[in-house]
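Budget justification aside, the reviewers requested a transparent look at the raw inputs and outputs of the sequence design task funded under Objective 1. We therefore reproduce one unedited record. The lines immediately below are the structure tokens for a 570-residue chain.
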């Protein structure tokens, strides 16, 4: 490929309003062009990376007996009504009517389509286990796209669905895919990634893991124990804590005036947040009648993912302006508001000497002893883990890191096969709903995540396995007849064995060297009048910056050796 004919341009300056490295470099280096918010066109360099990632994914899915299929982009409402997700998924799913006034939707995931494909096609237990997968462009009307390809609305995804006749067989196959995901991310060049326990979310099921690239720009919080290796997404993480001990006191209602927030009450009463009981009120999606009130210790935060699982509904912080609640003074004693679901977090179990609202304007109650004053309360795990809480496995302090989700796997059970009435015949003549698992990788997000991890202040540094080209052929002084002739010869000979991007532009050395670093091609082969005078070329390894002078007659062999070593190191 000649860079003079390559569609796209390399930009000297950083992109306006872009503060994520991968996003900035992919725009500047001519890999992406934004169409609108959360939607991008991939130019040739990005598409070459994209296809190499897909090739690696296909190879690993085929190793675990995956069968590639292709589901439709558009599906009828009836298919999703059976699973209940047509109504339970919000505005992120695009719904529309076709010309016959029939309700249709754009698939953002394909569990329903997978069951539909296999229903009445797979009829007996001896056809199981099997896994089908696809790589397809999907659309999710994401409310807050960010960071280029990290969070988008239109995306290419590999999603796979396996079917099983018992739990043990499901667990065994799930582990095989878990292992294959580790191989995929290593092969595409990721280094600092981990697998963590996660929430099943809208997918449903009982067991789930997310593969996370640890990075400061990540949206997810990951709880990690550096001692024993416990790892979990904040949505499901648990921890032990040493609870603060407060002096036991008698109940007493006290005037707190305009103090409403935890900070204001603590300042007014000269106490710590750990001595307060915080009330957080939630509205529940699909339930206009009831309000959920969570009581939690004042120094803790509600984990809404845990709360959703407890309630079985999506939640949102409730506007209390037209309710019977006294905002800022809601208390856990004698709360008599109709249609209220009251929940207590584990952080309050055994606590005494606590301060709570009095359920009337301007007053709080101090001296709350939960064993004495709320004897029949059931405590639940509803709080977020904090840095320094004790690991539930070994008791060491946990750390909290940020991460980008690069893949996920779920054990779905019979959630979809039962809802859609898919059955298989068993040896004893009975019929069962087969168990399912699903496995996803966002291809574009994987591309951007590698770019985020593999870059420096000069630009991208692609791993050899997914680089758009292996070699950037960089002749200096093309106005020199000797250089021009040798460059043409090298392009022809090197292209027979390697993937070569030939910089055939008659521009300055600075422009060429800057563009080669910005684009992140693993190896640069430079020739100039000076190097040719010694019958040599200069090889620069982008990752390390190492420069190697090589005789032209040894150039191909040297490049083969470097590429082989780079690939073996992945």
């Amino acid at each position: 490929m000649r860079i003079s004919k390559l569609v796209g341009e390399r930009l000297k300056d950083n992109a306006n309003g872009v503060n994520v490295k991968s996003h900035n470099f992919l725009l500047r280096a001519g890999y992406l062009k934004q169409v609108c918010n959360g939607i991008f066109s991939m130019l040739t360099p990005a598409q070459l990376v994209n296809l190499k990632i897909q090739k690696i994914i296909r190879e690993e899915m085929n190793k675990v007996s995956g069968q590639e299929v292709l589901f439709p982009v558009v599906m009828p409402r009836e298919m999703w009504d059976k699973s209940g997700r047509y109504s339970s998924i919000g505005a992120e799913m695009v719904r529309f009517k076709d010309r016959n006034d029939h309700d249709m939707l754009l698939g953002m995931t394909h569990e329903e389509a997978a069951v539909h494909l296999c229903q009445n096609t797979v009829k007996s237990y001896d056809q199981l286990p099997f896994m089908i997968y696809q790589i397809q462009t999907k659309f999710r009307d994401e409310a807050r796209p960010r960071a280029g390809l990290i969070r988008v609305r239109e995306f290419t995804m590999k999603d796979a669905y396996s079917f099983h006749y018992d739990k043990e067989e499901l667990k065994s196959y799930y582990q095989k895919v878990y292992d294959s995901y580790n191989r995929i991310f290593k092969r595409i060049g990721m280094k600092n990634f981990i697998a963590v326990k996660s929430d099943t979310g809208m997918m449903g099921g009982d067991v789930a893991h997310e593969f996370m690239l640890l990075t400061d720009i990540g949206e997810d919080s990951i709880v990690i124990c550096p001692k024993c290796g416990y790892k979990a997404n904040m949505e499901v993480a648990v921890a032990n804590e040493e609870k603060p001990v407060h002096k036991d006191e008698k109940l007493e209602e006290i005037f707190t005036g305009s103090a409403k927030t935890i900070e204001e009450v603590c300042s007014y009463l000269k106490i710590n947040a750990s001595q307060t009981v915080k009330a957080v009120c939630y509205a529940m999606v699909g339930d206009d009648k009831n309000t959920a009130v969570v009581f939690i210790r004042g120094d803790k935060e509600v984990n809404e993912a845990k709360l959703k699982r407890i309630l079985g509904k999506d939640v949102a912080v409730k506007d209390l302006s037209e309710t019977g609640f006294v905002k800022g003074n809601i208390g856990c004693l004698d709360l008599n508001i109709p249609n209220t679901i009251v929940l207590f977090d584990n952080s309050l179990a055994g606590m005494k000497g606590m301060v709570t609202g009095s359920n009337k304007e301007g007053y709080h109650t101090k001296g709350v002893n939960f064993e004495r004053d709320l004897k029949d309360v059931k405590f639940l795990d509803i709080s977020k883990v904090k840095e320094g809480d004790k690991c539930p496995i070994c008791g060491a302090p946990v750390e909290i890191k940020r991460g980008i989700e690069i893949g996920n796997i779920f054990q779905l059970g019979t959630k979809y096969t039962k809802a859609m009435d898919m059955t298989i015949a068993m040896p004893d003549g009975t019929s069962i709903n087969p168990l399912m698992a699903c496995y996803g990788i966002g291809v574009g997000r994987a591309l951007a995540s590698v770019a985020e991890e593999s870059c420096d202040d000069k630009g991208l540094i692609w791993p050899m396995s997914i680089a758009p080209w292996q070699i950037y052929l960089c002749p200096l002084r093309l106005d020199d007849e000797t250089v021009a002739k040798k460059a043409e010869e090298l392009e022809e000979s090197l292209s027979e064995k390697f993937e070569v991007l030939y910089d055939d532009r008659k521009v300055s050395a600075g422009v060429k060297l800057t563009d080669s670093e910005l684009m992140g091609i693993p190896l640069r082969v430079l020739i100039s009048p000076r190097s040719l005078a010694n019958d040599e070329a200069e090889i620069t390894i982008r990752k390390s910056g190492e420069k190697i002078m090589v005789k032209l007659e040894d150039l191909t062999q040297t490049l083969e050796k470097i590429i082989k070593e780079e690939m073996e190191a992945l």
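The chain has a mean pLDDT of 94. The chain has three domains: 24-238+400-452, 252-380, 459-568. Computational costs for records of this kind are itemized in the attached budget.
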